[in-house]
Protein backbone atom coordinates (compact mmCIF):
# COMPACT_ATOMS: atom_id res chain seq x y z
CA UNK A 1 0.00 0.00 0.00
CA UNK A 2 1.53 3.31 -1.07
CA UNK A 3 2.01 5.97 1.57
CA UNK A 4 1.22 8.71 -0.97
CA UNK A 5 -1.14 7.55 -3.74
CA UNK A 6 -0.57 9.17 -7.14
CA UNK A 7 -2.46 12.40 -7.69
CA UNK A 8 -3.26 12.92 -4.01
CA UNK A 9 -0.98 15.92 -3.33
CA UNK A 10 -3.17 18.62 -4.85
CA UNK A 11 -5.09 20.45 -2.08
CA UNK A 12 -8.81 20.92 -2.46
CA UNK A 13 -10.91 23.89 -1.45
CA UNK A 14 -11.79 22.23 1.86
CA UNK A 15 -8.09 21.64 2.57
CA UNK A 16 -7.32 25.31 1.98
CA UNK A 17 -10.09 26.34 4.36
CA UNK A 18 -8.77 23.95 6.98
CA UNK A 19 -5.24 25.33 6.52
CA UNK A 20 -6.47 28.91 6.94
CA UNK A 21 -8.27 27.88 10.11
CA UNK A 22 -5.13 26.11 11.31
CA UNK A 23 -3.14 29.31 10.74
CA UNK A 24 -5.55 31.29 12.90
CA UNK A 25 -5.55 28.66 15.63
CA UNK A 26 -1.74 28.40 15.65
CA UNK A 27 -1.34 32.18 15.79
CA UNK A 28 -3.78 32.54 18.68
CA UNK A 29 -2.34 29.54 20.53
CA UNK A 30 1.28 30.66 20.21
CA UNK A 31 0.45 34.21 21.22
CA UNK A 32 -1.31 32.84 24.31
CA UNK A 33 1.68 30.64 25.17
CA UNK A 34 4.11 33.56 24.75
CA UNK A 35 1.92 35.67 27.02
CA UNK A 36 1.82 32.96 29.68
CA UNK A 37 5.61 32.62 29.53
CA UNK A 38 6.10 36.38 29.89
CA UNK A 39 3.72 36.91 32.80
CA UNK A 40 4.31 33.56 34.46
CA UNK A 41 8.07 33.10 34.15
CA UNK A 42 9.42 36.36 32.76
CA UNK A 43 8.43 38.32 35.88
CA UNK A 44 10.67 36.20 38.08
CA UNK A 45 13.98 37.65 39.29
CA UNK A 46 17.05 36.32 37.45
CA UNK A 47 18.64 35.12 40.69
CA UNK A 48 15.41 33.70 42.15
CA UNK A 49 15.25 30.31 43.86
CA UNK A 50 15.01 27.18 41.75
CA UNK A 51 11.94 25.98 43.63
CA UNK A 52 10.07 29.15 42.65
CA UNK A 53 11.00 28.58 39.00
CA UNK A 54 9.71 25.02 39.06
CA UNK A 55 6.41 26.05 40.63
CA UNK A 56 5.95 28.72 37.95
CA UNK A 57 6.79 26.22 35.20
CA UNK A 58 4.22 23.75 36.53
CA UNK A 59 1.50 26.42 36.68
CA UNK A 60 2.26 27.72 33.18
CA UNK A 61 2.34 24.17 31.77
CA UNK A 62 -1.03 23.36 33.34
CA UNK A 63 -2.53 26.49 31.80
CA UNK A 64 -1.02 25.60 28.40
CA UNK A 65 -2.65 22.16 28.61
CA UNK A 66 -6.04 23.75 29.34
CA UNK A 67 -5.55 26.14 26.43
CA UNK A 68 -4.89 23.18 24.13
CA UNK A 69 -8.11 21.53 25.29
CA UNK A 70 -10.06 24.76 24.74
CA UNK A 71 -8.75 25.20 21.20
CA UNK A 72 -9.32 21.52 20.35
CA UNK A 73 -12.98 21.46 21.42
CA UNK A 74 -13.80 24.84 19.84
CA UNK A 75 -15.68 24.91 16.51
CA UNK A 76 -12.56 26.01 14.54
CA UNK A 77 -10.57 23.29 16.28
CA UNK A 78 -13.08 20.61 15.38
CA UNK A 79 -13.08 21.88 11.80
CA UNK A 80 -9.31 21.72 11.22
CA UNK A 81 -8.28 19.20 13.86
CA UNK A 82 -6.37 21.79 15.94
CA UNK A 83 -2.95 20.24 15.34
CA UNK A 84 -1.02 23.49 15.91
CA UNK A 85 2.11 21.35 15.78
CA UNK A 86 4.01 20.20 12.66
CA UNK A 87 5.15 17.05 14.47
CA UNK A 88 1.54 15.97 15.09
CA UNK A 89 0.58 16.64 11.48
CA UNK A 90 3.48 14.60 10.10
CA UNK A 91 2.95 11.85 12.66
CA UNK A 92 -0.73 11.49 11.80
CA UNK A 93 0.17 11.54 8.11
CA UNK A 94 2.64 8.70 8.69
CA UNK A 95 -0.12 6.75 10.42
CA UNK A 96 -2.51 7.31 7.51
CA UNK A 97 -4.94 9.52 9.43
CA UNK A 98 -4.18 12.74 7.50
CA UNK A 99 -4.32 12.79 3.68
CA UNK A 100 -1.16 13.81 1.88
CA UNK A 101 -2.76 16.83 0.27
CA UNK A 102 -3.18 18.51 3.68
CA UNK A 103 0.37 18.09 4.93
CA UNK A 104 2.08 20.97 3.11
CA UNK A 105 -0.74 23.52 3.68
CA UNK A 106 -0.80 22.62 7.38
CA UNK A 107 2.97 22.93 7.74
CA UNK A 108 2.95 26.33 6.05
CA UNK A 109 0.03 27.47 8.20
CA UNK A 110 1.66 26.32 11.45
CA UNK A 111 5.03 27.87 10.63
CA UNK A 112 3.39 31.11 9.53
CA UNK A 113 1.25 31.12 12.67
CA UNK A 114 4.32 30.85 14.89
CA UNK A 115 6.04 33.74 13.10
CA UNK A 116 2.87 35.84 13.12
CA UNK A 117 2.39 35.23 16.86
CA UNK A 118 5.96 36.29 17.62
CA UNK A 119 5.54 39.45 15.53
CA UNK A 120 2.22 40.22 17.23
CA UNK A 121 3.71 39.87 20.71
CA UNK A 122 6.59 42.14 19.66
CA UNK A 123 4.12 44.82 18.58
CA UNK A 124 2.07 44.52 21.77
CA UNK A 125 4.88 44.34 24.31
CA UNK A 126 7.45 46.61 22.72
CA UNK A 127 11.00 46.53 24.14
CA UNK A 128 9.89 44.31 27.05
CA UNK A 129 9.69 41.31 24.72
CA UNK A 130 13.49 41.24 24.37
CA UNK A 131 14.21 41.73 28.08
CA UNK A 132 16.45 39.34 30.02
CA UNK A 133 13.54 37.50 31.62
CA UNK A 134 11.52 37.00 28.43
CA UNK A 135 13.83 36.97 25.38
CA UNK A 136 10.94 36.46 22.97
CA UNK A 137 9.86 33.39 24.99
CA UNK A 138 12.57 31.31 23.33
CA UNK A 139 13.11 27.80 24.71
CA UNK A 140 16.50 26.82 26.13
CA UNK A 141 17.63 23.68 27.99
CA UNK A 142 18.71 23.63 31.61
CA UNK A 143 22.20 23.16 32.94
CA UNK A 144 23.77 19.81 32.05
CA UNK A 145 21.46 19.04 29.12
CA UNK A 146 23.20 18.50 25.80
CA UNK A 147 21.88 18.20 22.28
CA UNK A 148 21.48 14.38 22.21
CA UNK A 149 19.70 14.26 25.56
CA UNK A 150 17.30 17.03 24.54
CA UNK A 151 16.66 15.28 21.22
CA UNK A 152 15.80 11.98 22.93
CA UNK A 153 13.42 13.71 25.37
CA UNK A 154 11.66 15.70 22.64
CA UNK A 155 11.34 12.70 20.30
CA UNK A 156 10.04 10.43 23.07
CA UNK A 157 7.46 13.01 24.13
CA UNK A 158 5.97 13.33 20.65
CA UNK A 159 6.15 9.58 20.09
CA UNK A 160 3.96 8.99 23.14
CA UNK A 161 1.47 11.71 22.18
CA UNK A 162 1.14 10.60 18.54
CA UNK A 163 0.81 6.98 19.62
CA UNK A 164 -2.04 7.98 21.91
CA UNK A 165 -3.75 9.89 19.10
CA UNK A 166 -3.50 6.81 16.85
CA UNK A 167 -4.69 4.45 19.58
CA UNK A 168 -7.64 6.45 20.93
CA UNK A 169 -10.00 6.42 17.88
CA UNK A 170 -10.07 2.62 17.78
CA UNK A 171 -10.26 2.03 21.55
CA UNK A 172 -12.73 4.81 22.43
CA UNK A 173 -11.34 5.72 25.88
CA UNK A 174 -13.58 7.12 28.59
CA UNK A 175 -11.80 10.48 28.53
CA UNK A 176 -12.11 12.64 25.40
CA UNK A 177 -9.04 12.74 23.19
CA UNK A 178 -8.66 16.52 23.59
CA UNK A 179 -8.30 16.17 27.36
CA UNK A 180 -5.82 13.32 27.01
CA UNK A 181 -3.60 15.21 24.56
CA UNK A 182 -3.84 18.48 26.51
CA UNK A 183 -3.02 16.63 29.72
CA UNK A 184 0.04 15.00 28.18
CA UNK A 185 1.35 18.32 26.86
CA UNK A 186 0.79 19.92 30.25
CA UNK A 187 2.50 17.01 31.99
CA UNK A 188 5.55 17.07 29.76
CA UNK A 189 5.87 20.82 30.23
CA UNK A 190 5.65 20.47 34.00
CA UNK A 191 8.26 17.69 34.08
CA UNK A 192 10.64 18.81 31.33
CA UNK A 193 10.05 22.56 31.33
CA UNK A 194 12.92 23.36 33.68
CA UNK A 195 15.14 20.62 32.18
CA UNK A 196 14.91 20.52 28.38
CA UNK A 197 12.65 23.54 27.92
CA UNK A 198 9.54 21.41 27.31
CA UNK A 199 8.94 22.62 23.78
CA UNK A 200 7.59 19.42 22.10
CA UNK A 201 6.51 21.60 19.17
CA UNK A 202 8.69 22.86 16.31
CA UNK A 203 6.36 25.82 15.82
CA UNK A 204 6.83 26.78 19.49
CA UNK A 205 10.53 27.47 18.85
CA UNK A 206 10.49 28.70 15.25
CA UNK A 207 9.02 32.21 15.67
CA UNK A 208 10.88 33.16 18.89
CA UNK A 209 14.19 31.88 17.48
CA UNK A 210 13.83 33.95 14.31
CA UNK A 211 13.10 37.19 16.16
CA UNK A 212 15.58 36.68 19.01
CA UNK A 213 18.42 35.34 16.87
CA UNK A 214 18.92 32.43 19.29
CA UNK A 215 20.02 29.41 17.28
CA UNK A 216 21.35 27.22 20.12
CA UNK A 217 19.96 23.70 19.59
CA UNK A 218 17.43 25.10 17.11
CA UNK A 219 17.83 22.09 14.81
CA UNK A 220 17.17 19.74 17.74
CA UNK A 221 13.95 21.52 18.70
CA UNK A 222 12.78 21.49 15.07
CA UNK A 223 13.74 17.96 13.99
CA UNK A 224 13.56 15.76 17.11
CA UNK A 225 9.77 16.14 17.71
CA UNK A 226 9.07 15.44 14.04
CA UNK A 227 11.24 12.31 14.14
CA UNK A 228 9.44 10.98 17.20
CA UNK A 229 6.00 11.69 15.79
CA UNK A 230 6.73 10.12 12.41
CA UNK A 231 8.24 7.05 14.05
CA UNK A 232 5.19 6.52 16.24
CA UNK A 233 2.82 7.10 13.30
CA UNK A 234 4.68 4.63 11.10
CA UNK A 235 4.62 1.95 13.79
CA UNK A 236 0.89 2.53 14.33
CA UNK A 237 0.29 2.15 10.59
CA UNK A 238 2.18 -1.15 10.46
CA UNK A 239 0.36 -2.54 13.49
CA UNK A 240 -3.00 -1.47 12.11
CA UNK A 241 -2.40 -3.21 8.78
CA UNK A 242 -0.95 -6.38 10.28
CA UNK A 243 -3.04 -9.45 9.38
CA UNK A 244 -5.09 -10.99 12.17
CA UNK A 245 -3.78 -14.46 13.16
CA UNK A 246 -5.92 -17.48 12.46
CA UNK A 247 -7.86 -16.07 9.49
CA UNK A 248 -7.62 -16.38 5.74
CA UNK A 249 -5.83 -13.90 3.56
CA UNK A 250 -9.10 -12.62 2.08
CA UNK A 251 -10.56 -12.08 5.56
CA UNK A 252 -7.46 -10.16 6.59
CA UNK A 253 -7.82 -8.00 3.48
CA UNK A 254 -11.36 -7.13 4.51
CA UNK A 255 -10.03 -6.22 7.96
CA UNK A 256 -7.53 -3.87 6.37
CA UNK A 257 -10.29 -2.24 4.34
CA UNK A 258 -12.55 -1.97 7.39
CA UNK A 259 -10.03 -0.51 9.85
CA UNK A 260 -7.09 0.51 7.70
CA UNK A 261 -5.47 3.94 7.36
CA UNK A 262 -7.59 4.84 4.32
CA UNK A 263 -10.76 4.43 6.40
CA UNK A 264 -9.49 6.59 9.27
CA UNK A 265 -8.51 9.27 6.76
CA UNK A 266 -12.19 9.52 5.81
CA UNK A 267 -11.50 9.43 2.08
CA UNK A 268 -13.91 7.13 0.22
CA UNK A 269 -11.81 6.94 -2.92
CA UNK A 270 -8.64 6.08 -1.01
CA UNK A 271 -10.69 3.49 0.87
CA UNK A 272 -11.78 1.80 -2.35
CA UNK A 273 -8.28 2.02 -3.86
CA UNK A 274 -6.77 0.38 -0.79
CA UNK A 275 -9.33 -2.40 -0.92
CA UNK A 276 -8.63 -3.05 -4.59
CA UNK A 277 -4.88 -3.17 -3.94
CA UNK A 278 -5.38 -5.57 -1.04
CA UNK A 279 -7.56 -7.95 -3.04
CA UNK A 280 -5.22 -7.79 -6.03
CA UNK A 281 -2.44 -9.26 -3.86
CA UNK A 282 -4.55 -12.35 -3.02
CA UNK A 283 -3.90 -15.41 -5.25
CA UNK A 284 -6.63 -16.17 -7.76
CA UNK A 285 -7.76 -19.49 -6.21
CA UNK A 286 -8.16 -17.82 -2.82
CA UNK A 287 -10.26 -15.09 -4.38
CA UNK A 288 -12.36 -17.61 -6.27
CA UNK A 289 -13.12 -19.64 -3.13
CA UNK A 290 -14.08 -16.56 -1.11
CA UNK A 291 -17.85 -16.62 -1.22
CA UNK A 292 -20.26 -15.02 1.20
CA UNK A 293 -23.58 -16.34 2.39
CA UNK A 294 -25.46 -13.74 0.40
CA UNK A 295 -22.90 -12.58 -2.14
CA UNK A 296 -21.57 -13.88 -5.45
CA UNK A 297 -18.19 -15.34 -6.26
CA UNK A 298 -15.37 -12.81 -6.74
CA UNK A 299 -13.88 -12.54 -10.20
CA UNK A 300 -10.48 -14.08 -10.93
CA UNK A 301 -9.19 -11.21 -13.09
CA UNK A 302 -7.65 -9.26 -10.21
CA UNK A 303 -10.70 -7.09 -9.52
CA UNK A 304 -12.97 -7.44 -6.49
CA UNK A 305 -16.21 -9.20 -7.15
CA UNK A 306 -19.66 -7.76 -6.58
CA UNK A 307 -19.84 -9.54 -3.22
CA UNK A 308 -16.98 -7.46 -1.78
CA UNK A 309 -17.11 -3.94 -0.45
CA UNK A 310 -15.25 -2.59 -3.47
CA UNK A 311 -17.61 -4.50 -5.73
CA UNK A 312 -20.51 -2.46 -4.41
CA UNK A 313 -18.84 0.63 -5.88
CA UNK A 314 -19.05 -1.10 -9.27
CA UNK A 315 -22.75 -1.74 -8.95
CA UNK A 316 -22.76 -5.24 -7.41
CA UNK A 317 -24.67 -6.62 -4.48
CA UNK A 318 -23.11 -6.73 -1.01
CA UNK A 319 -22.56 -10.16 0.47
CA UNK A 320 -22.41 -11.55 3.98
CA UNK A 321 -18.66 -12.14 3.58
CA UNK A 322 -18.16 -8.38 4.04
CA UNK A 323 -18.53 -8.90 7.79
CA UNK A 324 -15.19 -9.92 9.27
CA UNK A 325 -15.47 -12.57 12.02
CA UNK A 326 -13.35 -10.55 14.48
CA UNK A 327 -15.04 -7.21 13.90
CA UNK A 328 -17.78 -6.43 16.42
CA UNK A 329 -21.27 -5.75 15.19
CA UNK A 330 -22.34 -2.15 15.33
CA UNK A 331 -21.18 1.13 13.83
CA UNK A 332 -18.52 0.68 11.19
CA UNK A 333 -17.48 1.88 7.75
CA UNK A 334 -20.90 0.86 6.32
CA UNK A 335 -23.07 2.62 8.89
CA UNK A 336 -23.91 5.41 6.44
CA UNK A 337 -24.65 3.08 3.50
CA UNK A 338 -28.22 2.70 2.36
CA UNK A 339 -29.44 -0.92 2.53
CA UNK A 340 -29.31 -2.90 -0.69
CA UNK A 341 -31.31 -5.79 -2.09
CA UNK A 342 -29.36 -8.42 -0.16
CA UNK A 343 -29.77 -6.56 3.16
CA UNK A 344 -33.31 -7.85 3.66
CA UNK A 345 -32.10 -9.90 6.61
CA UNK A 346 -30.96 -6.73 8.36
CA UNK A 347 -34.18 -4.79 7.86
CA UNK A 348 -37.16 -5.20 10.12
CA UNK A 349 -40.11 -6.65 8.23
CA UNK A 350 -43.07 -4.30 7.81
CA UNK A 351 -45.87 -4.67 10.31
CA UNK A 352 -49.01 -6.29 8.89
CA UNK A 353 -52.04 -4.08 9.28
CA UNK A 354 -55.31 -5.66 8.07
CA UNK A 355 -57.76 -3.39 6.33
CA UNK A 356 -61.12 -2.80 8.01
CA UNK A 357 -63.99 -4.70 6.40
CA UNK A 358 -66.03 -2.81 3.87
CA UNK A 359 -69.72 -2.28 4.70
CA UNK A 360 -72.14 -4.31 2.58
CA UNK A 361 -74.75 -2.65 0.52
UniProtKB/TrEMBL annotation:
One Pfam assignment: MIP
UniProt-recorded name of the protein: Glycerol uptake facilitator protein/aquaporin Z
Gene3D superfamilies: Glycerol uptake facilitator protein (1.20.1080.10)
Keyword Phosphoprotein: no
Domain of life: Bacteria
Residue ranges, compositional bias (Basic residues): 335-361
Biased composition (Low complexity): 276-286
Molecular function (Gene Ontology), one example: water channel activity
UniProt keyword Transcription regulation present: no
Recorded GO CC terms: plasma membrane
Transmembrane segments: 20-41, 53-73, 79-96, 103-125, 145-167, 174-195, 215-239
Taxonomic classification: Bacteria, Bacillati, Actinomycetota, Actinomycetes, Micromonosporales
Originating species: Actinoplanes nipponensis
Annotated keywords: Cell membrane, Membrane, Transmembrane, Transmembrane helix, Transport
Primary location: membrane
Alphabetized InterPro entries for the sequence: Aquaporin-like, Aquaporin_transptr, MIP, MIP_CS
Record's compositionally biased regions (Basic and acidic residues): 287-303
Family the UniProt entry places it in: Belongs to the MIP/aquaporin (TC 1.A.8) family.
Amino acid sequence: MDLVPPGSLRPRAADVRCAVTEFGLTTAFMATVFGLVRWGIGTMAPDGPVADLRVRVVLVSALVGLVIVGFAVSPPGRFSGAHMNPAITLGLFASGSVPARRVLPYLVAQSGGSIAAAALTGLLWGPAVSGPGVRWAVVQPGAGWTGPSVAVAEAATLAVIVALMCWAPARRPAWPLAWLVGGLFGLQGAVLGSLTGGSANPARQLGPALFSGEAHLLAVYLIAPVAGGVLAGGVARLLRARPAPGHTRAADDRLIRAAGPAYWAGDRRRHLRAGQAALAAVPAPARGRDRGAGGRRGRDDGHPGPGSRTGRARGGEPGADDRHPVLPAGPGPDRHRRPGRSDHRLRRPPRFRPRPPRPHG
